[in-house]
Design goal:
This protein is an alpha/beta fold. It is 41% helix and 14% strand. The longest helix is centred in the middle third of the chain and has 32 residues.
């Protein structure tokens, strides 16, 4: 019986513990992002590798005391079930659909149970493998980056430096390609992004600045330490004991808000961290269970689970992929579903990004004197949910599924996600990025306004940058260091007592930030850095002495502009969304010339007409019920609309669609495949959505070679 118990514990480790260890070992940043204390990681390991399997073994032993036959049946069941759980992820990798993958796993489980009881060699083999029960947790704890988290961090402090009476404010955005901010001339697009344009009039804009790594965990430490980092090293104080944060002495007020890193020593950052509730062990266990379910569940069914690619931790509170679409039965059920919609909208309107920003603004040091304020805000990093006004436009049923649409069937290669090959889908994602940058700009405006209100903007050294960008190439990786979207990031430096903006096109990177701060504030960095100071005293004097009305008032000596990577990325940006007014962002699609036309005003001879023959195409809109209860004051409008169509036999996708809201054409789209379904996704301007109920209708665009006229045929519901 002891041998059987050992075999059950081993199978548990193979089926449950090791897959969780593998994911958390490869993505140890999850522990950093949620500030997981070491004892919680130890408890997780004890639970997975000791407590839960010991409970299984004890249950078998207790059952054996009561009935040998019952214990034998339970052993058959446990061995078969655990073997099936081991086999199911393998069956998934072969690309089997959900029913086939489950059937495959069940067959393997049944065969395994039979072989286990009838073949002594199988039981002997499991006995030989039994040391793996201890090896798995040891490897996880000591041979992955998690090792840096389980031992107490070295408290970094000193050598401290004193700097001049200058407040320093650093704002780091996340996944922001600099070309998304630009117009055709390579200047900041002041219409869409007025706050960035406002900063550019006061700061030196290093327009060709580059990141040094495609991941936050490596880029931010390089930015704060002034030297290169190693991918895979956790961004914590123990790994980076020398950074801007460790230079701050006890007499310098500091207000630090990090995201995805833990580089600030507790003695300096405790005050800011105290405002954030400490992570609970229950949350870590819940996240572990959700991660495991994603490992186990076939792709078609995993969409019903809470998303694990939308945020680092607290997955249960991420937006769920359930749709609002579907038939309702009776007025009571319809009202119940509408109430669910309203409650979910209230939930998604309570976004902690706004709360984090407000805490940062409330705690900024007041008055003159040296201080350090640092904010890393996870914007415009996906998931893309925001309109420039700050309203949310994605309901809980859409975010996860759209991400699945963008990705290849094999979403990751060596842990890195790829875009779908369909160019229209990648363009659609880019449009959503630009809308979210509009919201990011809005928050930057709040920061600049607050600095003005505190009276420290003029005398402050203000830095606004991003950790990395993101690539938007069909079939390519999300972040490729050979792509301008990933490599080139915003880098604005407003020197103290200077409001004369300039563009500097030298080749610089994020490692230059710390030496630049040291040069402006007049202190020496007590370790070797790879970056260089970009604003030496002569350059600062040049900035302050220039006549802003001169012909070259907006320029410093430049490097070669633009770099090939920047030029190509900017060209693609202009093709995708143009510049200036927001209308062009919404107008992308196969037939933008139809936007704004009233359906009831279409007639033959006008170039667009309604088809007189019937149509057997059926269309479903997932947000149809959301349109019946629009409330912009809630912080949510259904500006992102998606659904599916059923095509008649013989019709091959894609087909082009238009969507009319209240009888006016508001968006056009080309369908795409998602598994067995033919789907569409559209963006609609939020100005369309007044409070109340709105009607929708979808039409198929038909173009005939014999006639220049465009025919619109209404779909069935």
């Amino acid at each position: 019986m002891r041998t059987t118990a050992l075999h059950v514990v081993l199978l548990w480790s193979l089926a449950v513990a090791q897959p969780i260890y593998d994911v958390f070992g490869r993505y140890a940043e999850l522990f950093v992002a949620r500030r997981t204390p070491p004892f919680q990681i130890w408890l997780l390991v004890l639970l997975l590798s000791l407590a839960l399997p010991a409970l299984l073994a004890a249950s078998l032993a207790g059952l054996r005391l009561a009935s040998r036959r019952a214990a034998s049946l339970a052993t058959w069941f446990l061995v078969g079930a655990l073997a099936a759980m081991i086999a199911l992820p393998v069956c998934k990798r072969f690309g089997f659909p959900a029913p086939a993958a489950i059937a495959c796993a069940l067959v393997i489980g049944a065969i395994s149970a039979v072989l286990y009881h009838r073949q002594a060699v199988i039981r002997g083999f499991l006995t030989v493998l039994s040391p793996a029960v201890l090896i798995f947790p040891v490897v996880f704890l000591f041979l992955t980056p998690v090792v840096s988290m389980i031992f107490p961090q070295r408290e970094a402090g000193g050598p401290w430096v004193e700097w001049r009476r200058t407040p320093v404010v650093i704002v780091v955005f996340d996944a922001l390609p600099v070309t998304a901010l630009m117009d055709e001339a390579g200047e900041v697009d002041a219409v869409r992004f007025p706050a960035f344009a406002r900063l550019a009039t006061d700061a030196v804009w290093f327009r060709q600045a580059r990141t040094v790594a495609p991941e936050t965990s490596a880029a931010v430490p390089a930015l704060l330490a002034g030297r290169s980092t190693v991918l895979g090293t956790l961004p914590i104080v123990a790994e980076y004991p020398q950074s801007l944060f460790t230079l701050v002495g006890p007499r310098t007020p500091a207000w630090i808000f990090e995201s995805m890193t833990w580089l600030c020593p507790e003695s300096l950052c405790g005050q800011a961290e105290e405002q954030v509730a400490p992570p609970r062990l229950a949350g870590l266990l819940r996240d572990s269970a959700i991660v495991y379910l994603h490992i186990l569940t076939p792709v078609e069914l995993a969409g019903r689970l809470p998303a694990v690619d939308q945020q680092w931790g607290d997955f249960a509170n991420a937006e769920t992929p359930r749709s609002f679409a579907g038939p309702t039965r009776g007025e009571d059920q319809r009202e119940q579903r509408l109430q669910i919609i309203r409650e979910r909208r209230k939930k998604i309107a309570r976004e902690d990004l706004e709360a984090k920003l407000q805490r940062f603004l409330d705690g900024l040091p007041r008055g003159s004197g040296p201080s350090l304020s640092y904010l890393h805000l996870k914007l415009p990093h996906g998931p893309y949910h925001y309109l420039p006004s700050g309203r949310r436009y994605v309901d809980p049923g859409s975010a996860r599924r759209l991400n699945l649409e963008m990705l290849q069937g094999r979403a990751r290669e060596k842990g890195h996600p790829r875009w779908q090959d369909d160019e229209s889908l990648v363009d659609f994602a880019y449009r959503r990025l630009v809308l979210q940058i509009g919201y990011t700009d809005r928050l930057l405006g709040r920061i600049l306004d607050h600095l003005e209100e505190l009276g420290i903007y003029d005398e402050a050294l203000v830095v606004v940058t991003a950790d990395h960008g993101q690539s938007y190439r069909p079939g390519g990786f999300f972040r490729e260091m050979g792509d301008g979207g990933t490599v080139h990031v915003p880098f604005f430096v407003k020197a103290p007592h200077t409001r004369r903006g300039a563009i500097d096109d030298r080749s610089v990177d994020l490692r230059d930030l710390l030496p630049t701060i040291a040069g402006v504030l007049g202190f020496e960095i007590p370790w070797k850095v790879e970056g260089r100071g970009l604003l030496d005293p002569d350059r600062l004097e040049q900035l302050r002495a220039r006549d802003p009305s001169g012909a070259d008032a907006d320029q410093l000596p430049r490097g070669d502009w633009p770099s090939p990577l920047l030029e190509e990325d900017l060209r693609l940006k202009i093709v995708r969304v143009g510049a200036g007014e927001w209308d062009e962002v919404y107008a992308a699609g196969p037939a933008p010339e139809l936007l704004g036309l009233r359906i009831d005003a279409l007639s033959e001879g006008s170039g667009v007409a309604l088809a007189t023959h019937g149509n057997s195409v059926k269309a479903r809109l997932d947000q149809s019920e959301a349109l019946t209860a629009v409330d912009p004051a809630s912080g949510y409008v259904p500006a992102y609309l998606m659904g599916a169509v059923e095509l008649p036999p013989g019709t091959k996708p894609p087909v082009d669609l238009v969507l009319a809201i209240d009888g006016v054409i508001r968006s056009t789209a080309r369908t795409y495949r998602r598994g067995k379904h033919v789907c569409y996704s559209m963006l609609v301007p939020e100005s369309v959505f007044s409070p109340g109920s709105h009607e929708w209708a979808a039409y198929v665009i038909e173009r005939q070679a014999s006639s220049p006229e465009v025919l619109l045929t209404e779909t069935l519901r």
